[in-house]
Structure formats: structure tokens, C-alpha cells
Write a structure and sequence with these properties.
Chain lengths: ~450, ~450, ~450, ~450
């Protein structure tokens, strides 16, 4: 059976991920993501009203015109988890394909919300839930399986397409976490089985984000322990404490909520995306937040909440807000600018349970945000975080488990692939033979 | 009563700490340290055979000639903990003073060993043990108290000289740890009492090492959780695993020993200073190591141990060795050079539970050491560590607890004092009024 | 005669410089600057309409309320050169003092323009021109002298107040340039004389910006040679070339204009501040630009010029524009956004004859600007620049020339003073004795 | 005609360059270099006594065993210039091939000296001089041509193998300098001709060292202007001035010698490699040093010279010495350690006309060296240098001139190739089609 892999997007950048695997006449698409930074650099761009081709020209969504080179039918569009760089282009591209979107329940829910915000296209693909551990048939001879992985968002999976030629494992994005805070550990057992059963693994497409970093990515439980240390250290403080983290990072939000209670404060989630992700997680029963946990997204209800906090006493609350990267319109930045009813006083604490994404734009914005907060007397606790991406040792362990015949480095540009290539070369792989260095828009023929 | 403070050493560098406080006719000396980097830059220097004046000229030990400006008698020499930059000059300078060395039991033991290695001077000062929480009289009207603090070595204290004019608190070195792994938490309760009782705190001398870093220094329990995550992740590995850390860091060594057992390996401590510090801690009952824990310092017994390990199987052992900074003659560096019987194989793990001290010499040596280890196939896990020094928020909390009248930034040069001065200025202190910027060799008159 | 120095602004930051020297009953004020970054961090602030006290609270202009502590009359307000951090607060503060503004002709002209833009206050102080080498009497026994120095703007001087107790030399800002491109070399001869004549130098107030950088600041002629190399290397290019630099940097603009001609292109200056500074320099005969050199500041005339260039051929022109720091509203940034009629093509060259001022906000903006330019195909040449501030060796040479009794480090915060203090300590000065570490709002009494 | 390219060494590192081109039955080898850092990391290795296979195992010299895969006869071994990473393995590998070493006269002379130092092998290949602009026949249908380029050593060329299928241009190493200080500018005219004549350029092998750096590498004349600025600024100093630079950098040494004279000092070259390179350049008439210029390499004559300098007065001399990277045994490091008769005094100047090669080992050694020099009172001037390798714009211009069909990035590892690939992709090249990403030991078939 012919096996081809089209590396459509996310092979020259982080963002706009999209990969298609053709096995015989059947095609499965993995991810359809958005590169938000290509949008934000322009002023006043409203992506929800834009046409696909313009977004492709901007480098914001994958250029899927290469799909015409694959002879077969798309059977499924499979976003691996709910981050925007994996689902953000579904509203712009999915309607071109007569195939359902298949994902885990949490991811499906986020896709649904994404589609509701779209104004330009009418995406009517079927949205089909499938949980980690489950499978579905793809054509007559292939099978799609979801393997549970741990990442900085819940319900993430690595999809595996089982073909007669062996398995194609799509490895974006994950950390190897044996003690995550919410959910189960990564299912390494299953990866090891896949590596040994049947024809083994034909191809492994891997997330190279942290491939150049030594050692292993710490478990979420390490970040949790660190966060606990910080929060208990301010237990006796009788003024304002504010925390921020990635809205979609449900485990971290859970820890913040829990520790708030531990130090005698009422947590409250503020900001549109805070409400969106945590609300969704709660509705779908992924987490069991306290009954009295407030979540407010609309400007008015946020401001009303802030007024209540100011009235009842800042020392009673822990607002958990958006703005960890200093985004100009996020809640924390607005608090820094004094645009909300919440007044910061000298000595108030601001906890960034996040790391600045290392890019000058972010660094500049975050710096501005911290400056504004400090001008109002705030004290900053930062870098209470662990990454969601494998480092060197995780990569070694995945190679050891899967023993793939072919490797396709992904989720970076060539410079980012380089350390992964070094690592794989040390394991006996070779560029041009079984390591495939590719760019956006290429098709790699694995089995003729 | 006249109160003067002589800032003798460690006010233009980290290393060679020495400060004297005169209260009326009585003087107490805090610390007599060695700046090892000023020694190591020269080839073939044997400090144990050198005269004080030569070491002073080298900038290696404090220039205590300023002591002649203080009119009074030295009543005690008080090293705060057992690190070399606090005790390393006792063998060169203490004999000039007719006063006992007063320190906690662990520190006293390390001083004793230091004196035994000295060849040039015959130091016969009385070595007097005093534990945290205890006090001794200094002259007729003053009292010396030890307050328990947490640092990267056990049995560290902050000495407090109670005078009729208020307390002089010598704050070198500490982290504010409420959940250290060995020992009790820092005694903040006592600091708060001292800040409020009697005349309050006249002067606080503070360790500025991390004063420019945001947030709080994480607890040792965070490093321990991180270390546990790393060690359990290699539980199934059936080859060699080697760990290194600061020899004097008994809490960390304890965690390494414990986790080695958890993953089914026999820990063994190797290297002269590993044997020295851990042996001392065990003899004095600070820790309760497993009965079968081997500690070997002499080259021959180390090599014999390595041979036994190679014979019985590397997968049965966890050697815990010296060399975390890539020091050219340390055990791990020798292992990298292939100079020991322990043979590293492809995939073997080396765990650095330490951070590179950020200075080009260390960085160069550590880089070389890692290159050598990697050439032999080793995989590196690094930065599993937390600092032993207060960051911003710890400093705020100390100022809040002690409410000192005067501040003397220490344990840095002027550039290192700058962030502390900014921080204290924000709390109402002012340079030239109550913040005393000083250099080595100055005398500050606090009460005339 | 009593001599006091009030360090009013610019002693905790770079920006809002202001220092007053009282000699007996007479006071001279050096600089009244604006810290623009404290303004720009807020949205929509229009400084020209704001009250002084609000700007003081923002940290934007010097808090001159300390002037009430000086018993004497202000005889002159002396801005040393035309940069905003030295003249930008004159419009807000000068009217409080019954004294003329005394400066070199180019600086006076820039002050005049600054005052014309002010809406809130009516500043009617006399504007008095005095050239380098000239003097004026201050009261009965003092004399003010201007010594010519070299900086990144023309007509910069260091003012010297000669008093019966010795000279007070105000050393902000300068580079020691023996081969500047426009103007004469720095007048080191005169500094050496001042150091040796009469009572010598009582006090030297020094610009510490680059005090921590090794070696010497290169001459403007080095930047010119570098720029020439770049420009001749693109001589054969037949598309668009655009250059940007500091608008106030007349020497650099002159070199750009000259090299444009050398490679057969017509230079044209575009952007409000480009027109302002170069127009002023030409009107006052500091430079002799080609007769056909266009300068356009208003949006409409700029756009008209761009249209003409597009019509006649980009290969015929070298637009020299604002925007070297990626300022969001500057000309080059607008070009990057495609908001001007000038269309960049693949391969067009953009020459940054400037260095990014190392602060995350600038770095973020400049990065965004370069990204936008590159999206349009532009190629970037950057860092063709030399600093306008003394490095280590310049400081040694100034100390050697002046041999001052007292030193006051300035134009930085404490951290920035630290390397200068180290340097001066090595020359025998001592903190607290003759090195005065000061903050905003202090008064230092030198002679009682 | 079949054309194959074997990328033997220098495709995973900088160092041990070696590439072979087979055109039909004839093979030409370009470079045989040594990776010195792989040697120096081991203690006490004497390469001159070592066997090739051991050096190959160490990664120090190219693993030329892949040559057996090329079916043809080696007709020439062509080192492009005299740097060790291009000629350092000739003594270990050339004797395996029955072919002459063909190089420019200066390079041949350095190869000869290299061979004389070899103890293990007896290399008797013919050493054949050929100058830039000249050609020789390779087999019946090919021709080898040398094109003059500018680099940080004189007499560098880019060899071109003209084949019936087009030219193979070997582009290591060069800067595009139109105003070098010694020698002629780079022969861009000839490159443009080669790009347009006959079959054009089949393949271009390119040095990617600086491919990720914006703009263009400045001309040597820029470094010279910078150096002149520094040296004239110390013209009046009446103590010791010492300079260091790359010994093989004849242009820079020439400038140092000339400026020494300009400021009234007698230059003298000290250190083994200083004597070697400059002596060779002078003997072969590449430079015309003053008759009285002393060059001393042997320890005894160096010390004698230092003694003479100390006796006659340091202010009369400019010693130009080895040690710009802080190499532990180089002359300047020995001066810092006080191991030579030359005594440094407070205020003496040390001029580093070199940049630290950015690698932690060098940075550590250089830092130590500067610390030692400063302890003796020296003042440091550093970074007076320009690179010898093309940056982005040079690469664009080379592609424009040659218009090659195939590209092989070289002189870096994959991470270093990445920016060059980006650049070439922007020009229409594509990985896997005409950009060949390769590693050591590969053979690329260009024409079958």
C-alpha cells in the first residue's frame, strides 16, 4: 500500500500545524492550526471575517493547496488537542473536505466554540468524539487510534494510523508526565506495544520544540509543588494577591484554585478565555471545581466582580486572570493600566504561573506589563511553570519505545529540527535515509 | 554605648566574608572566609603553607588590619555556617585574636578539620559549640544569640548581638524555607520577636546575592520534588547512573541517597569532600543514612569501589560524586576523562543536582566536563537545584519582620548591592541616611 | 564660599537630567530633561498639555521641589546639548526660575522649538546663546565656561562653573572623539588646563552610561568608515535603498547624505524630526548640505515625495527616515506596514545606522518593525553605529586631565554607577569620602 | 559525465574540512583540516606522533574512508588557505593519495612547515604552487581554477573545478572585501563570469559560518580604522602597550606594525606562531615590513627581547604577541601570570585585535587571562576585529553572481546550515531538490 505524508504547515514555524497521511486511497489530516503571531503583527485584522487565501498569504493558516497532489479521499480531520495552533484553522479549511472532525471530547468542544465564532465560512463537517484508547476504521484496511498523552492542556492525544505497512504515529504535542495533576499519566505502555506489534512503526512525526534542551521536562507535579511553595509563603499577607496562567492549562488553574482555598482565599476566574476553557472543562466533568468558584468573561461581569472584591476586601480573594504574556488587551495588563476597579496597593502580589514565550514581541509586552504593575506597587513572582514539550531524554525514550523506521521532525523550523537530528543520528538514523527534513508543502513518499 | 561596624571583607566580592561589631569595649567578629577563586587563578598555590599577608595581597582572605581602628577586645569569632567563604580564613587569622571560635556543632566540626589542614599557623583558639536558640554573654551588657536559618548547608544560623542600643542582626547567608528537607524551618517567629522587643533592631547586615531576582527562592522541597521526578523517570534504566551535587549540601545528598534506594540502587558517596561533609553530618547525628551507605574519599578506596561497581553491575549503584562545576580534578571530571575504573556507556545518565555558578571560568570548565562525558555516551540532566540565598520577596519579609533602623548591604560588590538598595528605598530607607553603602576596610559608626 | 550640589534628576535613571550647583548665593542649573519612556508607557498621554506635578508624579520630569532647600538665586539654566533627556522639561519647569536659559546656538534653537510646542505653560525665560570657549559671570565671584565636547549631537558642551573653591565640571554627555566627522575634536587641552589652574577641580559630575564597558568608545569616523563600506557594497543595486538613524545625529546624517551622492543616489530626509534637526543645523550653518537636498516632515509632503520617488525610480533615491528603534508611528515602521506610497520589493535594502537601545520595549518594537520590513522582501543592515558616551578608558583620561577632588557619578542608577566607582576606586578615590553616591532629590555639601 | 561530491568532514562541525569532487574518473580533494578543539580537550595529546585512525576516532581529522566509495583517481589535493582547519590533516592523510598538493604559494609554504613537524607519517606528495587566476588540467576534460578571495589570511582562493557538466565552486572560506588592507579585493568579476559562461555553475559548496548574521561582514579597512582610532588615542601614554591578534592574520599584523610606528613605538613580533606566519609572509614578499622589525619565536629569544624592552623602556616598544583567546600557554597569558621579564604596570594597555570565539572553553580562558592582566594593572581594549566569513548579504551576492544549480551548505553543523537554507529558499532553492543537506561521510550524486 502506498504511504505518503504531506507536511503542509508547521514545518517552518511553530503554529499553523497541518499534516496529511495518505494510506492507499484514504487520507487522514492531523491538525489544522493558526499561527496567531502572523495575525497580530498586523493592526486591526479580524480573522473571523477573512478568507482562507488571504490568511494563507499572511502565513497565518496552512497552505493546503498541496492536498491536490494526494490521490485519495480525506476520511478524517484529527486535531490532537485544543490549542489554537492545532485547531485554529478548522473554521477556515475544514469545509473543503468531506470528512468529520474527530477528536477527544474536550477538543471537540473547543472546536465547536471556534466554529461558532466564524463569520466567513459555514463549516458543517460532522464533529465526532473519540476518547484516548478508542479506535475507528479508516477505509477498509486502516485504523485510527488515539493514545493518551500529557501536555499543557487536558485530553490531548497522539493519533496513530495503523496501516498494513506499519503504524504512522503523529507525536505532536506532549510531555512525558508520570504524575500529572489532573488526568492519567502518559500511556507509555501503549506506545511500547505499538512499537513491537505487527509491522511496528513505519513513521514517527515528532514535536521538536524542546529537542535542544538537556534532560527531561519536569512533571506538572513539580510546577505544582513550586506553586504551593509560593502561595503558602504569602499565606499571611492581608492585601491583594492576583495570579495568571495559560487559560487553557486546566491542571494549573486547578492547582491555583486549590491553593487559594488552602490559604483562605476565594478563587475567581476572570477574563474571556479563563471562563471559556475552565467553564468547558467543568461542564464536561474533567475537573471538579468548588461550587462557589466564579468564572466571568464579559467585561461587565468582570468589573462587577472586581467591585465586589474591592468592597468585601482584596484579602478574601484570589483573582485568576488572563495576561501572562503581557498581552495588551488581557485582564492583567488592564489591571496594570488601572483600567479595572481592582486597585493594586503597595506590596500586593502578582503570580505569573507561566514563562514568557521567548520572542522579542512577547518579551517587550510582558516587560511593559510588569513595569505598569510595579508602578502601582505590585511584587512579581514569575516562572512558576514547566513546559508541555519533550526535552532530549523524552525523545530518547519515545524512540526507544516506538523504534520507528522513519522520522519526520516537526513543530519547528530547520534550526529547531537540528538538535533532534543530532539526537536521532546518535541513535543510528541518518538524514536523507530515514530522517526526512522537510518544509511546508512537501510530500514524502514512504512506501511506493 | 558606642556601636561601630567594621566591614572587613566580602563587601567588594562574594568570598572572604568578615565583619566586626564593636559594642562599647567588646567586639564580636562574624565570619572569616576565603575567596577561593583568587587562589585558583594562580597555578600551584598551596594556601595551607602560605602566610596571611600574602593571602591578603592576593585578595584571598580578609584584610583585617582595619581591626586596629576598633578600640575594644574581641570576645568571639562567630562563623555562621560551614562554607569556605565563611570559615576558610580562620586558620590564617584567628590566632591573632584572644577569643574563642563560637559556632553551631556542625560548623565547629568543619572549622576543626580546616585547622587540622593548616601548616603555617598554629591556631589554638578555643572552639566552642552553641546551638540555634542559645545565647552567650558578650562583656557585661551584651548578649550573642543564634537564630536558626535555612541555607544550602545544615546548622546555619544568623547571629544576633543584643546591645543596649538595640540588636545587630548579621543576616548572612540564608533562604527562607518553610519546608526544608532536613532540619527545621527558618525561625521567622524569633526574627519577628527580635524586631519588636526592647530597642528593636539597630542594624541589619544583609546578604544581597539574589536581591535582584524577582519573587522568592523556592524551598528545598521543590528541588527535592524535581529530583524525584528525574530519578523515577530513569527507574527502568539498566545501565549506569551517576549523580553530583555540592558536597556540603547535606539535604540534597540525603534526597539523592533516599531516591537511589527508591529506584533500587545502592548509593555510594565518592570524593574527598563528599566523604568529609556527609561523614561529619552522620557522625554528629544530623542525618541518619542507611547503614550500608559507603563513603570513600581516598583515591585508592574510590578506585576500589568503582572496580567493585563495574564487577557487580553498574545498574546496582548510584555513585554520588564531586565535580558539579566541572572542577578539573574532581571525581566526575576524572570519570569524563576516563581516568577511573568506572566506564560510561552509551545512554548512561549523569545528574547534576546543582547549577553552574555563573562565571566564565566555571562555565568553561563545566562545558568541558560535559563534553567529555558526552563523548563517552552520557546523557546529562542539569539544573536540579534551588539557591540558598533570599530573593526579593524574602528580603521584603525580613525587613518587615526586623524593622531595622540601619541597613548594611553585604555579600556582593556595589553592583550587587544596587537592587537591594532599590528595594529598601521603596520601603522608605535612604542611602547615606540609613542605608550604608560600604566597601572592604571601612568602619561605620552607628551610635556615638 | 559654600558649595552645594543638588542632584535633582537622572541619578536613578537615564532621562530627566537635572543638577543644581550653589556657590555662595548663586545657583546654576544644569539640564532639565524628560524621561520619555515614563511617558510612552501610558496610552494617549499628551505631555504638552500636562501640568508639571503630574509629570513629576509619573517620573517623567525632575522633581525640582528640592530646590527650595538651596539658599540662593538661580542665575542660569544651562542645557548641555539638545537631546530630550537634557532639554525636555524646560517647558515645564523653567518658568519657575527668574533666570535665562544659556546654551550653545544649536541647543538654544532646539529649546526654542520645544517651548513653541508647549500648551500648558508660558515660558518666557530669556534664551541666551553662548558658544564653546566663551564664558559668562555668575554673581560676583563665579564664572561659567563652556568647553567643547563631542557627542552624538552637534554643539554639545560641558559647562564648568569656576568658583573660588575650584571648578565644578558637569561632564554630561560626551565621547572622547579626536576625529569627529563634523565639528572640532573634543577640547581635551582645555580640560587639562582646568585641572591644573587655580584651585583645580573641586568636583566632577560624570556620565556613567558606558562606564562598565572596556576600552574606548570608537570615533564617529569609525562609524563613518563602516557606513561607507556598507553603502559602496550596494552601489550596483538598482532597487530601493532606505536608511535610518537618530534624527538629531547630524554627523551621521551628513555621512549618509554624502555617501548617497557617492553611489549615485539623491538623498532625501523624511519624517518630522528628520526635518526638524537637519533643517535647524542647516539654517544655523553647522552643515553645508547639497542645495538639492529635500527635507520633508509633514505627512502630506512626505507622501508626495514617496510618490515622486516611485514614479521616477527608487534606484535614484536614498530616503533617510525616522524609525531606527521601530517606534510604532515613525516613518520606517509605516513603510513596513505598507502605509506609505513607497513600495518595498524583494531585495531592497534597509540600513539601520543605529543600535537598538537595550530595553525590552525597544527590542520588541524594533523586532516587529524588522519583521514587517522582511515580509515585504527587505534586507536589513544594522548596528552601523558608535555610542556617544565614554567607556572605561575615556573615564580614566578625564580623571587624569581634571584630577578632581570630588566625584559624583550621574546619568545612571546605582547599578550603573557601580563600574564607575570601581574604576575611580582603582585611582585612589573612596566611596563616602570623595565619591558621592547619590539619588534624586539629595543635596551634597562640598564646602561649608 | 558523472559528478559526485563526497562531503567528508566539516559538515557536522567547524574544523576538519574535507570534500572530494569526482568528475568522471578524476577526483579532486578540497581541504584536509584538523579540528583542534577535539584535540585540546584531552590532556597531553601530541598529534604529531599519532596515527590517523586514532585521530579520526577522536573526531580530530576527517574520516576519509568514504573515499573508497568514489570510483576514480585523486588528481589533486587542494587546500584553499593556510588555516589549520583546512590544512591540518594533510600530514596525516595526504600520503594515502598519489596526487600533488596544489595551493597558492603562501599556503604551500604553511603546508610544508606542517609536514616538517609531523613525526608519524612520511608525506612525500608533491607540493605544487598555483596562484589565483591560474588553472591546471584535471584529467582530460576538466580544469581546476583558483579564484582570488579575501579572508582573514592572505593568499586565500576559492577553487573551481570546471567540468563538462558545469563548474563546481568550492566556496570555503571568504569575506567579500572590496578594500582589504593587503592584497587585492575579492575577484567578483571572475565569479560573475563563471556564473554566466559555458554550462554555468553546477554546484556551489558554501561556508555558512555567519549565514545567520544580518547585513554584510565589514571590510578589513573598517577594523583598520577602528584599530587606528584606538592606537592614536594612546599615543601620549608613556608606559607599556601590548597588542595581540591572530598570528596568521597578516593584514592585521601589518596594520599593528604600521600604527606602532605612527605613534612612535618599535613593533616587535613575539611568540612561535607570530614568527612563523609573519616570517613566512615576509620571506615570500607578501608584505614589506620595516627592516628593523624583530620577530622572535623561541622562548629564549623572546625573553631576551623582553629584557631589552624593560631595560630600554617599555614606552619605546609595541610587543605584538600571541594569546588573543587566552590560550593557557600563549605569550600574553604568560605575561599575565608574570612568567616573562616584561612587567606590566598600572595603566598599561593591552589591545586585543580579535574577538573571543564564542565557545565556553575560550570564554573561560580569555576571562582568566584578562583577570590576570588586570590584577597587574592592565587596561583592556577588545573586539577590534571583523570576521573573515560572509554574512547574509554576501551570500545573496554570491548566489546572484554564480546562479548555481545545486547548493551544498558547509563549514557548520545542521543548525548552522539552517539560516543559509532559509536564505536560499527565499531565492527559490528547495531542500531535497537543489539544496543538499548533508553530513560527514555522505556522497551526493549530482549528475548520473
Amino acid at each position: 500500500m502506498e504511504i505518503e505524508i504531506a507536511t503542509i504547515g508547521g514545518y517552518e514555524e511553530v503554529g499553523r500545524q497541518m499534516t496529511a497521511v495518505r494510506a492507499g486511497d484514504d487520507i487522514v489530516i492531523f491538525d489544522m492550526g493558526l499561527n496567531l503571531s502572523q495575525v497580530l503583527i498586523h493592526d486591526n485584522v479580524e480573522t473571523e471575517k477573512m478568507h482562507s487565501l488571504d490568511l494563507i498569504d499572511m502565513g497565518a493558516i496552512p497552505d493546503d493547496r498541496v492536498m491536490s497532489e494526494l490521490e485519495g479521499d480525506v476520511q478524517a480531520i484529527v486535531p490532537t488537542h485544543g490549542h489554537l495552533d492545532h485547531i485554529g484553522a478548522i473554521s477556515k479549511l475544514a469545509h473543503r473536505y468531506d470528512a468529520p472532525v474527530v477528536a477527544t471530547p474536550f477538543t471537540i468542544e473547543l472546536v465547536k466554540q471556534q466554529l461558532q465564532g466564524e463569520s466567513k465560512f459555514n463549516v458543517e463537517n460532522d464533529l465526532q468524539k473519540m476518547s484516548a484508547g478508542e479506535t475507528m476504521s479508516i477505509g477498509e484496511r486502516c485504523e485510527l487510534e488515539f493514545v493518551h498523552v500529557t501536555h499543557s492542556i487536558i485530553d490531548a492525544i497522539n493519533p496513530v494510523l495503523h496501516t498494513p505497512e506499519g503504524a504512522v504515529v503523529y507525536g505532536l504535542d506532549k510531555r512525558m508526565d508520570h504524575s500529572p495533576v489532573v488526568e492519567d499519566p502518559i500511556d507509555m505502555e501503549r506506545f511500547r506495544e505499538i512499537g513491537r506489534e505487527g509491522e511496528g512503526v513505519l513513521c514517527y512525526i515528532e514535536d521538536c520544540t524542546n529537542a535542544g534542551r538537556k534532560g527531561r521536562t519536569p512533571s506538572e507535579s513539580v510546577a505544582r509543588r513550586h506553586l504551593k511553595d509560593v502561595m503558602t509563603s504569602v499565606e499571611d499577607y492581608d492585601g491583594g494577591i492576583v495570579a495568571t496562567t495559560f487559560s487553557s492549562h486546566i491542571s494549573r488553574v486547578t492547582s491555583l484554585v486549590e491553593f487559594a482555598k488552602d490559604i483562605g482565599r476565594q478563587p475567581v476566574l476572570l477574563g474571556r478565555s479563563m471562563e471559556k476553557y475552565s467553564g468547558t472543562a467543568e461542564r464536561l466533568n474533567y475537573v471538579d471545581f468548588p461550587d462557589d468558584l466564579g468564572m466571568y468573561g464579559h467585561r461587565k461581569s468582570v468589573d462587577r466582580t472586581f467591585k465586589r472584591i474591592m468592597k468585601e476586601g482584596k484579602e478574601k480573594y484570589l483573582p485568576i486572570v488572563t495576561g501572562h504574556q503581557g498581552e495588551p488587551r488581557a485582564m492583567l495588563t488592564r489591571m496594570g493600566r488601572g483600567e479595572t476597579p481592582y486597585e493594586l496597593d503597595d506590596g500586593d502580589k502578582v503570580i505569573f504561573s507561566a514563562r514568557v514565550i521567548p520572542e522579542p514581541t512577547n518579551e517587550g509586552q510582558r516587560y511593559q506589563s510588569e513595569r505598569l504593575l510595579k508602578m502601582q506597587g505590585a511584587r512579581i513572582y514569575d516562572d512558576i511553570h514547566v513546559s508541555g514539550h519533550l526535552r532530549e531524554e523524552g525523545h530518547y525514550q519515545m524512540l526507544d519505545a516506538l523504534q520507528p523506521k522513519h522520522l519526520i521532525p516537526a513543530h519547528q523550523d530547520l534550526k529547531g529540527f537540528a538538535p533532534y537530528v543530532n539526537l536521532a543520528s546518535g541513535m543510528g538514523y541518518e538524514v536523507g535515509r530515514d530522517i526526512h527534513l522537510t518544509q511546508n508543502g512537501n510530500v514524502i513518499q514512504l512506501v511506493e
